[in-house]
Structure formats: structure tokens, C-alpha cells
Amino acid sequence: MRKTVVLDIVALSSRVVGEHTPFLKSWIEGKKKAIIEPVLPAVTCSAQSVYLTGKYPSEHGIVGNGWYFYDECEIKFWRQSNRLVRSPKIWDHLKAENPEFTCANLFWWYNMYSSVDYAVTPRPLYPADGRKLPDCHSQPMELRDRLQKELGQFPLFSFWGPNTNISATRWIADAAKKVDEWYNPTLNLIYLPHLDYGLQRHGIDFEKIGKDLQEIDQVAEDLITYFEKQGAEVLLLSEYGITNVNQPIHINRILRSAGWIQVKDELGLETLDAGTSQAFAVADHQVAHIHVQNEAIFEQVKSLLRNTPGIEKVLDKNDQVEFGLDHKRSGDLVVVADKNSWFTYYFWMDDAKAPDYASCVDIHRKPGYDPVELFLDPKIKVPLLKVGSKVLKKKLGFRYLMDVIPLDAGLVKGAHGRIPEEDIDKPFIVGKKELISHQKIEAGDVYDLIYHTVKA
């Protein structure tokens, strides 16, 4: 089997490869590139699961970055157990053919408790005093300690949130080289998220994202150079491209105004009670899953959504078949935004009653994806002073609330999730010319390309 590296540079599209990415531009020109027709929804968890199983959400069950767990009547995002993915993975296939095959997975999602040989993934510590501390999880368990001894603590707060920067992506890249040095796996899967964040903040504005592009270009050059020196075959790919948006759709507020959302008063603030709501939305970038728990209002919900500005498609269960999205975890309706719009999870009508987690980086409690977590609240007059005082409380062991995130969805300028009209905004895969024979492939074909690269 051939030593292979799959380098996932999130949000890389043909539109952003150019003057700010000189290494990638040159490297790609010497290879063969194929546009990937993205899966719907074009989001991290769904796209990665298609690439690693060769199946679509209707089979592997990953209908988004999160979904409504019917048995618990709760919306949960960013779960981590690989057992949620209901289809065999590429490493299972390859290991069955050759017991000497090994695989390392560096930060691709659903990376806990899988059958992969070596895994590293973000996993904070949550002491009983309410703090959240940076850390990661690994397989084997001692790999976590070895990596953090060599590279320092995984910089969790640079991985996501308003302090996001290149250091987390650089840590992942350095960890990938260490894992390769120590274990020499046959297949390395490496996730580099840095570009995703600036593009969601600013959209396609090269004056603002040029630095991000230069930084990811440098990390890619370092990794590709390292692995090619080891004789590895490098496949470069992305999961989706990000496009400009200017209209947030507060879809749960629309459903609430119709009388279908149930909220609970908690100390004067509101939380969404999904189990008793007649209809609610699980918002995930430019796609939202609508669960209608009162059949009598189904047609009313459908009609309301079809007439909502910014919504381009309303897919019932029959329509979802066309997109490979017909799974029990999918909503009774799946709505897709138009190219200028995206969906918030906001369900409160008055910001004074927003739940306490709304103004925090709290990806597991929010009943939907929240890109506004990438911003510090511009209303804070001296942000360093406010953040610093909260960090001091944390260091002293006091309970604290890092409520520094704004509630202004209009700050977000880039999004993804729908299938873009232009190929220049779609993901792509790059490899040797003899391995990639088409100019465009389906998302499910990525699995075969990885498989045949390893087997070649």
C-alpha cells in the first residue's frame, strides 16, 4: 500500500487560491484538480462523513453538524463519538484487505472511539467549579500527553471563538508530523480549519482575509514538503467553499411568531423547549431542519416557509431523497437559504431575555450553529479589560461567565451549506494526474479516490 496523506484545508475554493497563496497555486498547477459537487448540507460533519464512508447522509446518518435527538428531545451539536456515523469507514475497508495498514486521524470530526489506529481531537476539560480548560483527546490515550509535552497545550481558544488564529491550525500540523514520525501510518488524515474563520467573519474580502490565506499557505507548504520528502502521495481537498451573505434569517423567531415554539422561563431568561414545541428549526449555516411535531400544522408550516424571504428550497421527505438526505435524523422539512442568506438559531424575541449562553462561546448548549461566536461584542468599550478580568477570575478559581459574544447576526459576512451556483465556489480535490481522471466528481467519489491512491 502507498503511504498517503489527505490534507483537508477547510473552505478552500478556486476563488481564494491566487496571489495570497503562492505555494498552493504553484503546487496545484502541477497536479490534476477536480471540482467536487458538494453534499447537501455542505457542512463539516456531513462532508467529512461522505468522504470517509462513500455514502450519503441517508445512509451514514450525519445530516448536519448537529440534529434533534428524538429519544432525548434535545438538539445537540458537535457530538464526537464515531459510533454516530452509521457506515463503515475507509480505514476499516483498507485494514480488512491488509492487516498491516494503519491510519492516523488528526482532527477530522467524529474522531473519538473509532477503529482508527491513531487519533487526536479537541476535548476540553470541565472541572466542577465551572471552568473550561484547553485539552485534547487521543488514541492511544498516552499520545495526548506525549504531544502536549512536545508541542505545548493544545490552544483550544485559538481553535474556535473570537480569539481564533493560526496557532491552533499550526499545532495540528506539527502534531501530524510528530504522529507520522513516531508511528509512520499508511494513511494520514489531517484537518486544517484556519481559513474557515476569517471567511465567515469577512466573506470574500481579500483586504481582510489576505493574511489568513498567507498563513494557511505557509502551513500547507510545510506539511506538503514534509510528507513528499517521506515519499507520501498527497491529496489536497476541501469540504465546501464560503460565499458572501448579507441576510440572517431568524427562522425560529418566524416559527415562534406563528405560535409553534415553546420557551421556558429560567431566572428571567428564555430557553427553547424542543420537546413541547409544535414546530422548531435546527439551524445549521445555510440549511435548517424543521421538525413538525403536530401533524395538523404541517401544511401551514410548509406554506409559511415557502413564503419566507431568503428561503430558496423547502424539501419534504420525498424531496430529500434527491439529495441523499432522507434519514430519520433529518427534519420533516429541510429548508435551504438563497445565496445571500443564512439561518440563525435565535428563538427569543427580546435580547434582554436571551439565554445566558447566547453571549458565550458555548457550542454544545446552543440549539444550532452560531458563527457570531467568532466576534467580540463591539459594544464592549474596553474588551481587553473585560476579558482580562474574567480570565483573572478563572485563574483564581472563581466561577465566571465569559459573556463577550454579540447578539448581532448581521456581523457575519460569509456562509456555506447550500450548493453554490458557480464551480469556483465549490470544494475541490487535487492529486496526481494519473489518479484523477475527471474535471468534476461527486462528493461520494472522494472515498474511491482516497482508496485507489492508497492501493495504487
From TrEMBL:
Pfam families on file: Phosphodiest
InterPro entries: Alkaline_phosphatase_core_sf, Phosphodiest/P_Trfase
One Gene Ontology MF term: hydrolase activity
Organism domain of life: Bacteria
Descriptive protein name: Predicted pyrophosphatase or phosphodiesterase, AlkP superfamily
Organism: Algoriphagus ornithinivorans
